[in-house]
Design brief:
This protein has 807 residues and is α+β, with helices and mostly antiparallel strands. Helices cover 45% and strands 19% of the residues. The protein has 30 helices and 22 strands.
């Protein structure tokens, strides 16, 4: 029967109630119970009844620990339920029918009468291995209370190792094993009996014995110590063991478990950490190369970084970048222990490692005699090579190679490929920069320097000539009656003639000289180290060569030129102005000739010529009046032409134009809408959307404006008026010009015109604030507008980019 109070309501056992009930029933039976505090603190049931009375079975069964009672003759007289569970003996069978359990206990000597007293009784403690009827035995710690009447009560607590994967061994004061749990077979690879009688260091590999001996000494000195070692297994192998040696008088207890998984996990952790560190280092290298690509205008520096990082990070002796051109590979960058030099080359043979790369356009690994030869070696070198591409085509390869027969590390291929991708980016970026630089400084039709690059070079040469007191000459060359030629034969024929004149001039010029196209049909020829007379002779030779053959069909094209040297000018602007004046004189006096500037030449103009120039001035004034009339006619755009002209002039100066040439643009911009005089008022002033037919009429105003101004503006200025509605992407009018074919003055006027339309009051839509209008201009770059003109206008309005960001 279950003792009263053993299970509280709800069925949950409470330890304190069990102890209290056990003590009460023990005392009721006339026994002397172990104090409650001893039960609680030691977790053992060492209970001895008074006299020779048997302990009640119900009391013993209620105890959570195994308890046995031995009679006067040393036989087992009582065993509680916990002991049956420990020994796996059913309730209907005797616990120790053959005396094996008592014999195992007696073998430890624990049953001999000891001198230590517990609760007034003689007691002893030992470790024993008790047999089980159905399998391996169980290790227990036995505490024995010897009663005065000669009987004994035993509390048996399973060793921590029982049913545990940990191997528990007990060692005496000399460190020799005196008992071993069954789990030692799995941890040490030895049966328990093979460990008993052996000191722990004796089962350890030689290299680890000193560490284990030191740990045992600390445990014997009273200090718990953790140690890991390799155990010599009986099969001749070794396995890792993790152990804790804890003091247990007179020796120590060793709690050990298999450390193989822990060592493998740590090795995995180290491998992952090393891989993560390697990847971080590689990513840092990739970032450095990427930054170099972003800031370097030449790919050589980036390629050198790629070659160096390949050798350093991948662990190869050598890193190289080679350019593949047909059957030749040329070194463009080297790194590591390479003795090859940039420019060294070798032939690519069919079937060779580099030959396979060139054929398959894929990463290859193999041995290469050619790479070895670059390092002065005769045996083929191990290489990993991966292709580099430019615009989808094979450009070359990144190569990682060993020296003196050393291979490239396994798994290097994907890492070399990542650096090859960066090399490809560097090459593409460099060529793109070079192409953009050429586009920014080159006239696309003729291949000559454009207006911008000419004026930059003019400033540089003027400064140099002044610094070193050296001569410098400038010739401005213009095609005679070229507008008439274009009107007669068309723009395709005109472009052919322009390209032919450009080739003739550049072919005549020396390498140190610069020929540029600075206007529609106007060329500038800058001649350092040349005086005016020599420059005149060079121009005359070019004129003679041009006149000696037909320019288009049977048509010949003549040239007029004006020449001036720096001795007759104070600066670059004046040099250009004087050469232009000489050109004007040459054209005014019959064309097809060259003239050197001098004050006398200008003064020698006939009264008729001066009258014509005065008439031109008066006519220009009249046209300006007409421009104001156009603005007055459309009140919604009042003073639009004046604002556009002023903004175009300021933007041109921001682009680096000289003052006089910017004024030249201002005059054209002032008249950019004069062609609207030919647009009927019903269309021009219409309040609703225009029909397609009406829009076509409006679109004619730019070409009409060029015709109206042709007698008073220079041809170049007329071109600016005609083309100010062209778009950068070629979708404008009247001639659908695209890119650099759009005259530079027209590009500037187009941006100034759009800015004024967006920021001034008009009936076509809401007025935009400057920031919004700037956004619209920026979004139109590359489609409607030329980027440098937009940037120049924004500098005029907002200041430099740094100030804009600060604002």
């Amino acid at each position: 029967m279950t003792p009263r109070g053993f299970r509280p309501p709800g069925g949950q056992q409470r330890r304190g109630e069990v102890h209290t009930d056990v003590q009460a029933r023990t005392r009721a039976a006339g026994g002397t119970g172990i104090p409650r505090t001893d039960l609680t603190s030691h977790g053992q049931a060492v209970i001895a009844g008074a006299g020779g009375d048997a302990l009640p079975d119900a009391v013993l069964d209620a105890l959570p620990v195994a308890v046995a009672v031995l009679g006067h003759d040393g036989t087992l007289t009582q065993a509680n339920a916990a002991l049956r569970r420990l020994l796996r003996v059913p309730a209907d069978r005797p616990v120790d029918p053959d005396g094996a359990v008592v014999a195992a206990l007696a073998a430890t000597g624990v049953l001999a009468r000891g001198s230590r007293r517990m609760a007034g009784l003689v007691a002893a403690t030992a470790t024993a291995a008790l047999p089980r009827p159905d399998g391996p035995g169980v290790a227990v710690t036995v505490t024995v209370a010897h009663r005065p009447d000669g009987t004994s009560v035993l509390s048996l607590t399973p060793e921590a190792s029982s049913g545990s994967p940990d191997a528990i061994t007990r060692h005496d004061g000399d460190g020799v094993c005196v008992s071993a749990s069954p789990a030692v077979a799995g941890v040490y690879g030895r049966a328990p009996s093979e460990l008993v009688g052996v000191a722990l260091p004796d089962v350890v590999v030689a290299d680890d014995r000193a560490d284990v001996a030191a740990a045992a000494a600390r445990a014997l000195a009273g200090h718990a110590t953790a140690v890991s070692f390799r155990c010599e297994r009986m099969a001749g192998t070794a396995s890792w063991v993790d152990a804790v040696l804890a003091p247990a008088a007179p020796g120590f207890v060793c709690d050990a478990r298999d450390g193989t998984l822990r060592v493998a996990a740590e090795a995995g952790y180290r491998a992952r950490a090393e891989r993560a560190e390697r990847e971080a280092t590689e990513h840092d290298a990739l970032r450095r190369v990427a930054m170099a690509i972003a800031i370097e205008s030449d790919s050589a520096a980036a390629q050198a970084m790629v070659a160096d990082e390949v050798s350093r990070l991948i662990g190869s002796d050598v890193g190289m970048v080679v350019r593949i051109d047909g059957r030749t590979a040329t070194v463009t960058a080297t790194g590591g222990a390479s003795v090859a030099r940039v420019g060294d080359s070798f032939e690519i043979r069919d079937g060779s490692t580099i030959g396979r790369l060139a054929t398959t356009d894929a990463t290859v690994r193999g041995r290469c005699l050619h790479v070895a030869a670059l390092h002065g070696e005769t045996d083929p070198a191990w290489v990993v090579a991966t292709p580099v591409h430019n615009d989808g085509q094979l450009w070359g390869a990144v190569i990682a190679s060993g020296r003196e027969g050393r291979p490239v590390p396994v798994g290097a291929e994907p890492r070399v490929e990542r650096f090859a991708e960066l090399a490809s980016v560097a090459i593409v970026a460099a060529e793109t920069r070079a192409r953009l630089a050429r586009q920014a400084t080159t006239d696309p039709l003729t291949g000559l320097a454009n207006h911008r690059s000419f004026h930059e070079r003019l400033r540089t040469e003027v400064e140099r000539a002044h610094r070193y007191n050296r001569p410098l000459s400038l010739a401005l060359v213009d095609l005679d009656h070229f507008k008439r030629f274009n009107d007669t034969f068309g723009h395709q024929a005109g472009d052919h003639v322009l390209a032919k004149v450009a080739a003739q001039l550049s072919g005549t010029a020396r390498r140190s000289e610069l020929v540029a196209r600075v206007g529609g049909e106007e060329f500038a020829w800058l001649m350092p180290e040349t005086g005016a007379d020599t420059a005149l002779g060079a121009v005359e030779r070019a004129r003679a060569l041009m006149g000696a053959e037909a320019a288009w069909g049977d048509e010949h094209q003549t040239l007029s030129a004006g020449v001036c040297d720096l001795a007759r000018a104070r600066d670059g602007d004046e040099l250009f102005r004087h050469a232009d004046a000489a050109l004007y004189w040459a054209k005014a006096n019959g064309r097809n000739q060259a003239c050197v500037y001098s004050p006398e030449v200008v003064d020698s103009m006939s009264p008729e010529e001066r009258a014509r120039r005065a008439d031109r001035s008066r006519t220009l004034g009249a046209l300006r009046s007409l421009a104001r009339a156009v603005d007055a006619k459309d009140t919604a755009t009042n003073k639009h032409s004046v604002r556009v002209a002023a903004m175009a002039q300021r933007a041109a100066i921001a682009l680096g134009w000289g003052r006089e040439r910017a004024e030249y643009l201002r005059d054209a911009a002032l008249l950019h809408d004069v062609g609207k005089l030919g647009v009927p008022d019903a269309i021009l002033l219409k309040q609703g959307p225009l029909s397609l037919e009406e829009y076509e009429v409006v679109k004619r105003h730019s070409a009409l404006g060029a015709e109206i101004t042709s007698d008073v503006l220079e041809p170049e200025q007329c071109g600016w008026v005609r083309h100010h509605h062209e778009r950068w992407d070629g979708s404008g009018y009247p001639d659908a010009l695209a890119g650099d074919a759009v005259p530079i003055g027209s590009r500037i006027i187009a941006v100034a015109d759009a800015w004024d339309v967006m920021t001034s009051v008009h009936p076509y839509g809401a007025v935009l604030d400057p920031a919004a209008a700037a956004g619209e201009l920026t979004r139109g770059v590359g489609t409607q507008f030329w980027g440098p003109a937009v940037e120049a206008l924004l500098r005029v309005v907002f200041g430099p980019p740094a100030l804009r960001r600060a604002a």
